[in-house]
Fold these 4 entries.
Entry 1:
Amino acid sequence: MAQRILVVDDDRSIVKVLTSYLEKSGYQALSAYDGEMALHQLRRERPDLVILDLMMPNRDGWEVTKIVRADHSLAATPIIMLTARVEDTDKIVGLELGADDYITKPFNAQEVVARVKSLLRRVKLDQSPQALPRILVHGSLKLDIDQRILFIDSQAIDLTRTEFSLLETFMSNPGYTLTRDELLEKALGYAYEGMGRALDTHIRNLRRKIEPDPDHPIYIQTMYGVGYKLTGEIS
């Protein structure tokens, strides 16, 4: 069965273009033109991924993302945020609310499809069964790869899909300096010029959840001019 992609934008011409490209790529495209319609489609159709415009009537993209991430039945739905606003603060807010990716208008429709494919590949890998349970431990961090759960001193910590992928990448490569390109490819599934700011935002969000003092991290260290690394040795 074809994977279903919900395209949400109040500009019907954008919805028409994206649904056409998605359908040519073998996906089943659903559409919505405002936030309320998007939530209705999400709850009724349970799409595999959502392309969500930021500025819309009847609940904007930020509010829809917040509602989806707070609903346990929808929380795992991948979200690509589509925005005509180029300010970094707008993108950062979307990522902090739990969007997995963002694309700035005007966009190349083929790039949007490529991002959809990349994100869905990550979802498939996350859900693939493994022969043996995989657990990574680093200091007080315990990452259960198969159950997709992080524990810090036995307390479960909620991570977004992207945060989990980043932490898994770090904990699989302790003490190794990972460049931004490596992190984009290993954790996010693609390398894309201009995504460094988004990566930094995901790192900052991850630090807030795992570091005793995010302003003075003991786990994820910034290697200025290069990237990041997880300090210490994995147990």
Note: The mean pLDDT is 86.
Entry 2:
Amino acid sequence: MAPSLHPVGPDGFGDLPEPVESTVDWSALPDAVRARMAELGAEAIGALPPVDIPQQLRAVARFTPAKRARLGSGPIIANLRGSVAFRTAVVEWCRKHRPTALDLHGDDPVAVAAAAVLLGDDSAGHYLELVSRRASDATLRAQRDAAVVRADRAETELAKLRGELESVQDAVAKARQEAEVELERLRKRLREQGVKLREAKDEAARAGSEIERVRTEADAALAALAEQRDREHERAEVERGRAARAEADAEIARQAAREARQADEVRLALLVDTLDGAVTGLRRELALGGSGPRPADLVRGATEAQGAVGRVEDPAALERLLALPTVHLVVDGYNVTKTGYPELSLSDQRERLIRQLAALAARTSAEVTLVFDGAGVVAVPTTAPRGVRVLFSDPGVLADDVIRALVTAEPEGRPVVVVTSDRAVADSVRRRGAHPVPSAVLLARLGRS
């Protein structure tokens, strides 16, 4: 604390000097000092006569005491700096009502600095420097404390992240172990299916050999009977009765041979069906489908954009067909869209149907081929949603002909479903073994999704 610059009187404060022109840089006053001076000025103008209040502060004087210091601090400080008369009036008010506010020997550096500035005391610079230094120290301490808190928070977060990393690593190790176990299980099943497939092939080979042997024996028996019949015909007319009996015996033998051959062929068909079932089960179990091009990808006359037979009359029947293994769904594009939403433009019709068929393909795992007439299409899209093959007929080629070619290209026995309301197309694909479905049935199925 700086030594006293003024004598101390009986009241403890001495004769306080009159305020003089200050040499302090008011624009550089610390915020705490400015707030202290604004508080004193706000209290003073509430009690000063209007003649002592500058014109700029008369509106502030009408505020409540709390609002004066908060909202009028700027004008108050400016008038304390620029008006010696106003500053003198504030000092006089403090001497009468707040004498401690002008104590230059107090313990609060902010209050002392504010008093020194108001009085224009030479020690004002010293106290202002002290207040600024303490404010700076407080700011540094606050920054240091904030940095410590952030460091602690960062360490906590790091520990949390390390824990989460360990949990993730444990989960990855567990998943890897489970994947290895599942892979070994699948390998074992593959080996078992391979053994069954080889056994089925061996059984089919044995059945084929047996059928060939029976056929050879039957042919030999027929040849022998024919030779015997020829000899019987050469005999005399008197032995016609024996020849007739021999012919009857030969016919019985031939019938027996045919029945035996038919029975063997039935057994072979059953064995082949068993072998086909085993292969189909193995293909389904291992999700084998082949990644190469399918027959529909090799049909000429169309450009890919990206993507027991009877007429089906309800969505439930269509659902059953789409559940068949390796089913191929061929859709007459514009025939469906112009039935379901003809008010849309052609491009919007195509986009809507493609989105709906992509969702259907994802749910049913069916191969889906969508065929549009290419005539009048300005720009053919280069990509299509996953699971949908989109074809546009080439110039001079009708979409109906492309659909017929797609059905013809499929191997016999594969289930093919053709969606069209065109009777001629439906009749032609039915003759080729496909299942025709009216467009309204597909639209009902898509609308239910």
Note: The radius of gyration is 53 Å.
Entry 3:
Amino acid sequence: MFKGFSRSVIGASHVKKNIVCQDSSAYKIYEDFSIAVVADGHGSKKHFRSHIGSQMAVEAAVETVSSFCSDYESIEKELKENYDMILKNIEKQVIARWHKKIMKHFSENPVRPDEKKQFTEDEFSKIPIESYYGSTLVAAVMGRNFSFGFQIGDGSLVAVMEDGEAAMIMDYEESNPANITASICNKTASTMFSHFYTDKKKIFAIFVSTDGLYTSFGSDYDFLDYHTIIASQLYDMAVFESSVVKNITKRTHFGTEDDISLSCVYNGKTAESNAVVLRQKIEENKRRANARKARSNNR
């Protein structure tokens, strides 16, 4: 029933500066549910192993969701009864798994001289080990009868409905102080997540992406319309993959020139029939875009 896709592309600014891609992405398909995940390692000085941290954040999310949803009938019932508690438990388990992974990596890979040389001894002594690996995380899950997602830090989650409408159904708002970045490495990370759950909406596909994709668009309208367009290509994965990889690679030269990761899961059974509806929605979106442009020009 479910199919998926994921890809991470290095940003133009990282190529110029000879910096590794700090994004990671993955998807996992099971009979009753599917998972799409992206993570964006922080680029600042103290997060010098964030590319590893983002990979481990993705792994931790996939492993945790897979474990929680392994008894599908049970998790479906529990989510109906108290989804908020279940999702908070999932988020806490993701953090715990991530910590275990990064501490194992640290024990096997002590800080190298070339990693430490950019700091004074005093500066370095004040950086928690977790910060070396700091990362954001966005995850989406589609089940046979429910969907949910969770997020810490920036990035986007877009659902494309069966009628072609695209929406950011989990609007992420950082409630933490301005000088604290929402990150899986924070001591209070479990309080910084946002999440959503639904067993009502007729979702065809869910896309998650790092903020490099969002910043390559001029408006929310354009960003959402883009998801309707690419969703219309999901019935032919070969065409979709070629088109999307080419496009997001091009988009790494727009906006912040950041790395871009895109991952999705969708209903493979309805992909072909939904393509017709989605193409009609694309034409409708074009008319709306032209109307907005005309109104803007007349002001």
Note: Residues 72-108 form the longest helix (37 residues).
Entry 4:
Amino acid sequence: MSAKKATSALISVFHKDGLEPIVRKFKELGITIYSTGGTEKFINDLGVDVVPVEEVTSYPSILGGRVKTLHPKVFGGILNRQDNESDVAQLEEFEIPQLDIVIVDLYPFEKTVASGASEQDIIEKIDIGGISLIRAAAKNYKDVLCVSSMEDYGDLLEIISNNNGNTTLEDRKRFASKAFNVSSHYDTAIFNYFNKDHQQAVLKISETKGQVLRYGENPHQKGFFFGDFEAMFTKLHGKELSYNNLLDVDAAVLLMNEFKKKIRLLRF
């Protein structure tokens, strides 16, 4: 069956905005919540029961918070295949709880770099546990729903509210796609930060904000524009732009540039 009813969730997030309705819905649905550190305190302060991850792992958060969730009892709960008899048996043998939903966001690496913070502060914003949880949960989308951004909280809340805590395979795969987008963008930002000093002959670009065009090269195709079109041009009226409209704009701008070059030559 592709539909699965969630009975447990791991929540470990940097940003708490928008989390409260989800936590309260989990409580209403009887979903057991596991958490760490500041997120655990946030949930407790809402009056909602939460199981500290250290009770599962028998290890406290160590190394100044660098190691909290990196443990077989956490990743086993995420990566086990629920239709695999050996996996199910090992969860029982090692007393590993099944984790059906994983809600994680990442330390704000790009914002920390942009703020002009010290190198040490920037290094500490390279997330290890969070990125590992995201990759593990997204990999096992057949059994686990991975929520990797606070922007998806509303979508999650709607799904579990409308379906009594059930998620479909389509839901889980769609969230997995979003999760790998988050993880690849994050790693691209980290690589580009380090590559400023070493200048490897590598180009890595991750552009996550695109404008959907009216259609692509042909009416049945999709088209997207990445960049700030409004910063370059002012649209006065007319329909939404298509891919071909942008090609025409590009050709017109190049043509105008040719006239400018010829005018300069005539002046000399």
Note: The mean pLDDT is 86.
